[in-house]
Input
Amino acid sequence: MKMPSIYVNDPQPVPCDVCGDFMGYKYSDMIHHHYTSMHLPDGSYEMGAYDDGNNYYRKSSTPFCYSCNAKLKFKLIRKQQESV
Ligand SMILES: [Zn+2]
Output
């Protein structure tokens, strides 16, 4: 049997094997940030800030059970724009 695939925000297609029920799903994306530090001419630290905008480094397609963290038996289809 082929593993089902869903888009984010779609209903959970199969129950968690461990819970035996539909408990919801979660996923973790690795996000690449830039943090800029500014120093004065004497070398002293002035301030730092995260650059505007987050760049996705890697979007995960693997969902885990919201309740027990078990790996769920379906895949997530990830789009560039999605409401999270
Ligand atoms: Zn579970």
